[in-house]
Amino acid sequence: MAVFGDLLKQLTNMQWSDYLDILLVAFFIYRLLPLIPTSAMRILRVIIMAIALDFITNLLNFHATNYILDQVLAVGFLALVVLFQPELRQMLDHLGNVKIKDLVTTKETQGDMAGVIGQTVAACEVMSREKIGALIVFARNQRLDDFFRTGTIVDGMVSEQLIRNIFFPKAALHDGAMIIRDGRVMAAGCVLPLSESNRLSADLGTRHRAGVGMSEATDAVVIIVSEETGTISVAVGGMLKRHLAAQTLERLLRNELCGDEPAQTGLKVRLRQRLQKGMGSKDEEE
C-alpha cells in the first residue's frame, strides 16, 4: 500500500508540463510501435515480460526469484543483442526510414484505397481464373524502402491492366513481388524474405513462403495467387489465409487497409468496371 500512496502523492505534485510530457511520450509510443517488425515485437514482448516479473517479485519480496531475474536481465540484454542482431538491425533500419510527417499524417484517404483495392481484387480474380501466379505487397506503416532496391521502381497508378501486365508469364518482372504503397505501384520484381516457419503446409511453394515471410518481417499485407491452382491467399502477421473468393479478399483487404469504412464503395468500383467492360465489348461488336 505504501507504493500506491507514494504514487498518489507523486501524481498530486505533478504540474501541467508533466502531464503534457506524458501525453507526448504516449503519442510517440503509439505511433512507433506499429512500425516495429513482427519479429522484433516478439523480442520486445519478452523484455517487457521479464521487467514486469522483476518488478512484481520485488514488490512481493520474493528475494530468491527476484535475484535470479536481476541476474538474467543483467546478462540478458547483451545476449539478446547477440542472438537477435539481424532483427534488431532490421528494426532500427525501418525506424530510420520513418519521416516525422508520417507519424502525424496518413498518406492516402480511405476513398482512394477503396479504388486501389477494387482494381487489385479485379486483377486477382482474372489471374486466379487464368492461373497466373502473383505476389502483391501492400505496405502500411513500414515504408519497405529496402525491398524497392531488390526490384525495379515503377511508381504508377494502380490499375487492373497494370497489375495483370506485370504478372503476365512472359513479362520481365512477373517472377518477383509487386509493392503497393501510398495508393501507387511503387516497385515490381522485388525479392522477399522466405519464411522458415514449420507450421506452413509442405505443398506450399516459394511464392507462398515469400508472402508469409514478408508478413512476418513487416506489417505488410501480402496477396498470393497460386500459379498451379489459381487459389488466392493473403498473409498478415505471419498467418496465411487460403482459398479466398474475390468478395472475401476484398472484405479482408478493406478491414486491414481501410479500417471500419463500409465495403460498399469497393463493390461499386468493381460493378462500374464490369459495366464498362460490357459496354466496351458491345461497342466492339457493333
Keyword list:
YojJ-like (1; seven-stranded mixed β-sheet; 286 residues; alpha+beta; 12 helices; disordered C terminus
Assembly type: single chain
Order of helices and strands: HHHHHHHEHEHEEHEEEHH
The CATH class label of the largest domain is Alpha Beta
**What is the CATH-assigned architecture of the largest domain?**
3-Layer(aba) Sandwich
Query: What integer value in Å does the Rg equal?
Result: 24 Å
Strand arrangement, major sheet: 2-4-3-1-5-6-7
Give the N-terminus to C-terminus distance in angstroms. 86 Å
Overall pLDDT score = 80
Indicate how many domains the architecture comprises: 2
Please characterize this protein's 3D structure.
The chain has twelve helices and seven strands. With 286 residues, the protein is of the alpha+beta class. It has a seven-stranded mixed beta sheet, with helices on both faces. Helix 3 runs antiparallel to helix 4 and helix 7 runs antiparallel to helix 11 (246-257). The protein has helices spanning 2-12, 16-32, 38-59, 63-83, 85-96, 100-104, 110-129, 145-148, 160-166, 206-217, 246-257, 264-285, and strands at 134-138, 152-157, 177-181, 184-190, 221-225, 232-236, 239-241. The chain folds into two domains: 2-104, no CATH class; 110-285, YojJ-like (1, CATH 3.40.1700.10.
